[in-house]
Every structure is written in C-alpha cells, then in structure tokens.
Design a protein that fits this description.
55% of the residues lie in helices and 12% in strands. The chain is α/β, with parallel strands linked by helices and 208 residues long. The protein has a single domain, classed as P-loop containing nucleotide triphosphate hydrolases (Rossmann fold), CATH 3.40.50. The chain has a 5-stranded parallel sheet with strand order 2-3-1-4-5, sandwiched between helices. Helix 1 crosses helix 8, helix 3 packs parallel to helix 5 and helix 4 runs antiparallel to helix 5. Bound molecules: thymidine-5'-phosphate. Thymidine-5'-phosphate binds next to helix 4.
Length: 208
C-alpha cells in the first residue's frame, strides 16, 4: 500500500511520521517511511537546488520539471521495489504537492502538470492520501519559528493560500483517496486522528 501525507507549509507532517510509523509497526505492519523531494541520493541533490534561497531566479516550469526528475528516480528506486516486497510505503509528500504548489500555487495549466506527473510516475497513484490541513498564516509562522525557512516558503502568502485551496479542491474531486485531518488541533489530537484514520483503511496485518 502506498500512503502519502500532504499539506501546506507548517502542517506538522514531518514531526508526526516517526510516531505514526512506530505505531503501525507495533501493530505488525512493515512500513517504509520516506520523503519527497528526496528519498534517493539524486533526489536529495535536486532538493538542495529546489530549496536553496540562492535560486530566486528559478522559473516555475524549471521548478516543476526538477520535482518530476526527483520523483521519477524516487518511484523507480524506492517506491515500486518496496511495494513489490509488500511493504507499506509512507511518503512525506508526493505528486499532489506538484499539483498544489506548481499547479494551483503558480497557476500553471493543471492538465499539462498532470501529464508531466503521469510521465514522471509511470502513472503510480497513492492508495491513500492524508491532507494535514492548516491555516496558511499559522503554518508559515510555525515554519519561521522552527528555523526551517526555504525558497518555497518565501513565496507570497497569496501563493500559499492558493496551495491550500488547491488541496481542498483535490479532496473534493477525489474523496475516495483522501482523508483530511485538522492540523490546527493539539499535536496529540492530530497524532491520534492520523493513527485511527489510517488504521481504519489498512487491511489486517499479516502477523495478527
Ligand atoms: P517540506 O520538507 O516542508 O515538505 O518541503 C518540501 C517543499 O517542497 C514544500 O515547500 C513543498 C515543496 N514541493 C513542491 O512545491 N512540489 C512538489 O512536488 C513537492 C514534492 C514539494
């Protein structure tokens, strides 16, 4: 099963994943946590280019293509092999981030972006996607405080508002694949909601 976590900046995905993985492993599941952009040596190098605050001149189309290059490597080197082994791949972001950020955020043609994603992924779509939804201002403040500011965070608040609206639109368009968790709750409540909602979607673990 391929599960992805998505959300606007500061939604807290990254801090929740290790605890979620531990919880699922305790229940007998084999889980492989990973992240995008990254997850491979080539992907991590591309991540550095994408996130560097020095690269302010990057054009949205160049940005879109770099995310797809990292993703193509990620799908073939990490995701497909792990899925073939029967593992649960749990990824911190995937292709929906491209639709949200490069599609809705940069207001590029969504159909063209979808075609690029299909090419990069060989049409691999997650089985389940969790949106950690957060108010944009609250999320950006969290990131600034955590000292994790990167080139993407530095886009305008309006850009990030379009990203969040894009996510909510995607949930509406494909409700069967998405679960929404309110990331404005306490950390413990968000973690509990993630555990319960994801567990409810999983088949029984083989050791149970
Ligand atoms: P993160 O570590 O905060 O998740 O950083 C990833 C950043 O990259 C975040 O700002 C979202 C952005 N991103 C895109 O714009 N498009 C993509 O396809 C992916 C995977 C991430």
């Amino acid at each position: 099963m391929f599960i992805t976590l998505e959300g606007p900046e500061g939604s807290g995905k990254t801090s929740h994943i290790p605890y979620l993985v531990e919880y699922l492993r305790e229940r007998g599941y084999t889980v492989f946590p990973t992240r995008e952009p990254g997850g491979t040596s080539i992907g991590e190098q591309i991540r550095d280019v994408l996130h560097s605050l020095k690269n302010t001149e990057m054009h949205p189309r160049a940005e879109t293509l770099l995310y797809q290059a990292a993703r193509a490597q990620f799908v073939e080197q990490v995701v497909r092999p792990r899925l073939t082994l029967g593992e649960i791949v749990l990824s911190d972001r995937y292709a929906d981030s491209t639709l949200a950020y490069q599609g809705y955020g940069h207001q590029q043609d969504l159909e063209q972006v979808r075609l690029l994603i299909r090419y990069a992924t060989g049409s691999l779509v997650p089985d389940l996607t969790v949106l950690l939804d957060i108010d944009v201002q609250v999320g950006l403040q969290r990131k600034q405080k955590a000292d994790e500011w990167n080139r993407m965070d530095a886009y305008t608040v309006e850009f990030h508002q379009r990203v969040r609206a894009g996510y909510l639109e995607m949930v509406k368009q494909e409700p069967g694949r998405w679960i929404v968790v309110d990331a404005g709750q306490t950390w413990a409540d968000v973690q509990a909601a993630l555990r319960n909602k994801i567990l409810a979607c999983l088949p029984p673990a083989q050791t149970q």
